[in-house]
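Today's session is about reading a structure prediction critically. Students often jump straight to the picture, but the first step is always the sequence itself: look for stretches that repeat, for charged clusters, for runs of hydrophobic residues. Only then move on to the predicted structure, which in these notes is written as discrete structure tokens rather than atom positions. Here is the chain we will use throughout the hour.
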Amino acid sequence: MSFDRTALINAGILALTMLLVSLVLVVGTDTGGDAPLGDLAVGQPSPETFIATRSTDPIVDDEATDAARVAAANSVETVYTNDNEATLAVIREVNSFFDDLAEGAIDESLIPDETTTTSTTIQDTTTSTEPGDTTTSTSTTTTLPPTTTTTTLPRRSIKEQIVLLNTSHAKLSLPIPSMVELYNNDLDRVADGEDAAFPEVEKETLDLVSEELERGIKPTELSERQDLYINPIDRPPIFVSGLPRDEQSMAREAIAQVVGFSLQANLRVDDPATATQREAAADAVEPVTVTYRAFDTIVEEGEPITNIQLQAIQQLGLYEPEVTGETSRLAMALFGILAVLLAAFFLWRIAPAQWSQPRHMALLGILLVMAALMSRLPAIIATDNGALGYLLPAVAIGFLAAILFDPRTAVVLAIPMAAFTALSTVDIAFTVYAGIATVVPVAFVSRVSSRRQLRVAVLLSAITVAPVAATLEWVFGDGSIAMSAVWAFTGAVIAGLIAIGLVSFFESAFGITTSIGLLDLLDRNHPALRLIEEQAPGTFNHSMLVGALAGRAARAIDADPLLAQAAAWYHDLGKVALPQYFVENQFGVSNPHDTLPPEESAQIIRSHVTEGLKLAKKYRLPADVTDGIRMHHGTSLMRYFYHRALEVDPDVDPELFRHHGIKPRQKEMAIVMISDATEAAARAYASTEDPTAAGLKNVVESVVTEKVDDGQLDESQLTFGDLTKVKAELVRALMGYYHARVPYPGFPGPKVVEGGITPALPTAVKVEEVEAIAESESADEPPNKEDG
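Below is the predicted structure for this chain, in token form.
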């Protein structure tokens, strides 16, 4: 029933994966709508020469029509409207200048009180031709009494007048000195009884300003119109009647400068009106059409096809492939489904037990959907620059598959990655690159044993795919070879770093043990390891040695050394519950098992496995590492306690003294079991005599033989060839640990018995004795001294 339920879940995950992959590959794909597909497409070389079989209907040339309409719109001149505020501002500015000129000439502080009530102004007195006449000036209207003359009004100095005008009319600073001089000369002439001529200067200035403003000044024309007066070369003729000949030149220059510096643009752009007229002009343009007559050549073979030519070919029915847009999408979806099915089938054939687990199937589905999404990238970013397509992050799929699963999975996933890229890009270079880039990380992450090596693996993968991309672009493409390598390198680095970041998330979410997770567990500061070190220091040292042995043995047979070492470090985690009942923690204290019945001692020893599993759950140890706790004793017999029980009851059931664990099912767990028993036996052997190579070899052989004979390795994947390599590696490792040491002077040596003779230590140990030692150490109880 459980198998059927698991199979249904896996089938549902696989079906959902196929649906998502199909949607990713099809949605948003430009297949040309209902237009014929195949070799015929705009911009592509024509597969043959097409000749019109009849006259076509007029075909609208959208590009030519748009160009004609744009030209018509641009031919409409910009519409301007009068800016009355600007016009009035200029007039006010000029009038204000002449008013200030007149007022600035008189120093009112020097006018006597009796004359201040006349309200007489210079402008008014100089414009009167006969006594009693009433005249109107630009700014005021006054009546000049017959007896009043300009000599009665005190004037400021020329310099003072210039300073005052510059203060209020700074932009007219250039003509101010001339205007002040002209005005004061006119005052002198009036004082001598002559007619005033300066009002003509003012009138001529205002007339010229008014003429320019009436013509209208655009912002783009302002500088040109100002230069017309400021620059004397093209200046219009200016003449002031009544002014002496010797002042005409000065007056012309001053008037022109006042006009030039006072002008402002009084026409502004009318954007709405301009847009309306241009839109109308564009709408008035008739569509540009093209017509092919019978027997006209539409396009020659090999020439790039234009949109007009494609429409003509479609209209005449000259090229009708069977594949249409909808059919193409369906074919793409089916091909994507086939790629998913092939990948799942291959992986199931390689490791059926692994891929029968729903969590593994779900993670595989996520990787396949990610691969489909990644395959769309080149078609999106490489529209104008083909080299950009090598940013394709296929390396990420290789990293994730190799780290989360195994190298074989990464190699298999190269097939759907390449297939998806072929569907998305229809480009052989990108397709081949996708497959190769997926496989490349396998060579660098398969034996990673540190985080530094992971980062190096990313760099090496990027260095490897760069020349691959350059070569593919050289052979199949027409883009930049150098930039192809650069983008491939960049994409691989980014993809590798993202993959490493995703590994931790997937590892936690799906309960999968990876090399990165194992590296975290092998941190000596891990809380569980610190607990062992603090509560059971002897067990901690024993676990460290077992981990070193297991790691070396795993490397010798190409198993996972990180997993073997991590499982060995945590295999005795449960001993922290009752550390005093285990011999390696009994330093300077009596053995509590001496006073306990064998059955109770066996139960205590057996409990360290169940307690270890509880602590493993508390510290969230991965399932693969937890297997080391569950399997390191398997179902082996605690022979020491069993033999003690036999002394009391010869008919005692041996099952009462067996561990309740599970026999090792992976190579790494079998290695942990062998390394655990070997370390204990070798330690006991070394405590009774000086270790030798032959003695250590006998210890290892006896331990392995006992495990094989007891059937503890029956379910593991170890072969006899593997066991040979494991035994040889364990002997080499133990020889390194129990190497000879130089005796130091003054240190205690062996005791000398009476007569000065030191008793000889045995040079070898019998196999039976080693077996007893190994069994008792595995049971965490030292052998009875009386048993020899």
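Discussion point for the tutorial: Strands lie at 50-51, 59-60, 80-82, 134-136, 141-143, 267-269, 289-290, 297-299.
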